[in-house]
Automatic annotation (TrEMBL):
SUPFAM superfamilies: Periplasmic binding protein-like II. It comes from Ottowia flava. It holds the Pfam family TctC. This is Tripartite tricarboxylate transporter substrate binding protein. PANTHER family: BLR1237 PROTEIN (PTHR42928:SF5), TRICARBOXYLATE-BINDING PROTEIN (PTHR42928).
C-alpha cells in the first residue's frame, strides 16, 4: 500500500481484502507504507521478489510520477507491471459554503470577476486534485491560486475552515462533508453522474464537454511476476468487483468497479501520462 490509512487507496484495499483472501485461499495483508507521494512503497515493490505475493496498490498519481519525481529510484514502465485498475470515482468540485456560488456557471463568473483572489487546495504538486484544478483553470480561462498541502487531511481541514475556498476532492472523501452541509458540491468530473451524487451535474454538463477526469485505484506487481499469476489476480478481482452486492457497496460511496486487463491498464497509464504532460507543458506548471 503506497499510502497511509484513511485515504481512498486504503479504503478500496480493505474492501477487497477479505473477498480476495477467500478467492486465493491465502492470507492477504494490507500494509500501509506511505512516504514521498507513494514512491517509497513503489520502490520497495519494484525490488521485491516477483512471486505474486508482494503487490502494490496505487492511486492515479502513479501516472504522473515521472513528471513530479525526475529522479525516481525505479522505472514506472519497466520495474512494475499493471495488474488491474480496481475502481474509479470522479473528483468533486467542492467549495466552502461561504463562497457565493451554487453551480459551475456562477462560480466561473465569480472567478473571472476576482482573478487570483480565491485559493484552491491540493495534496501536493502533480496530484490529481492539483492537475484537475489546473485543467479547470485552463478550460474556463480563470485564475485561482494553488495552495499545496502535505496530505489530504490538512488540505480538507483548511477547506472546511475556510482558509482555502475550493478543491477537487475525491467523491468518496467529499461525501460526508457535502451531506453535512460543511462543503457545497458544484460539479463532478466524470463522464456521467454517479448515483452517490445524483443531484450534482458533471462539469461536462455544465458547459465544458471535453472536461472529464476520473480518479482511480489500481494494483501493480514486480515486473518479472509470471503472467499466469497476474492473470489470476486480475480475474479474481474482476469477479469481486462485479458481484451485485459489491457493486452496490461501491456505488454508495461514488465508486465504480473497473477490473480491466493488464494491457488495458497499461494503455490507460500511457494515455493519462501523455494528457497531463501536455497540460504541464502548455501551462508551464511547476511540480516541485
Amino acid at each position: 500500500m503506497a499510502f497511509p490509512p484513511g485515504g481512498i487507496v486504503d479504503n478500496v484495499a480493505r474492501q477487497i481484502q477479505a473477498p480476495l483472501q477467500a478467492a486465493l485461499g491465502q492470507t492477504v495483508i494490507v500494509e500501509n507504507r506511505g512516504g514521498a507521494g507513494g514512491t517509497v512503497a513503489a520502490a520497495e515493490v519494484a525490488r521485491a521478489a516477483p512471486d505474486g505475493h508482494t503487490l502494490l496498490m496505487v492511486f492515479d498519481s502513479y501516472a504522473t510520477y515521472p513528471l513530479v519525481y525526475p529522479k525516481l529510484p525505479f522505472d514506472t514502465t519497466k520495474d512494475l507491471q499493471p495488474v488491474t485498475q480496481i475502481a474509479s470515482n470522479p473528483l468533486v468540485l467542492v467549495v466552502n459554503p461561504k463562497v457565493p456560488a451554487t453551480d459551475v456557471k456562477g462560480f466561473v463568473k465569480l472567478l473571472q470577476a476576482q482573478p487570483g483572489k480565491l485559493n484552491y487546495a491540493s495534496v501536493g504538486p502533480g496530484s490529481s486534485n492539483h492537475l484537475t484544478a489546473e485543467l479547470f483553470k485552463a478550460t474556463t480561462k480563470t485564475f485561482v491560486t494553488h495552495i499545496p498541502y502535505r496530505g489530504g487531511g490538512p488540505a480538507q481541514q483548511d477547506l472546511l475552515g475556510g482558509q482555502v475556498e475550493m478543491m477537487f476532492l475525491s467523491a468518496v472523501l467529499a461525501q460526508p462533508h457535502v451531506k453535512a452541509g460543511k462543503l457545497r458540491a458544484l460539479a463532478q468530473t466524470g463522464a456521467q453522474r454517479v448515483s452517490a451524487y445524483a443531484n450534482v451535474p458533471t462539469v461536462k454538463e455544465s458547459g465544458y464537454p471535453d472536461f472529464v477526469v476520473n480518479s482511480w485505484v489500481g494494483m501493480l506487481a514486480p515486473a518479472a511476476t509470471p503472467a499466469p499469476m497476474i492473470d489470476r489476480l486480475q480475474g479474481e478481482i474482476r469477479k469481486i468487483v462485479t458481484q451485485p452486492a459489491f457493486v452496490a457497496k461501491l456505488s454508495e460511496q461514488g465508486l465504480t468497479g473497473i477490473a480491466n486487463t493488464p494491457a488495458e491498464f497499461a494503455q490507460a497509464l500511457q494515455s493519462e501520462q501523455a494528457r497531463w504532460t501536455r497540460l504541464v507543458k502548455a501551462q508551464n506548471l511547476s511540480l516541485e
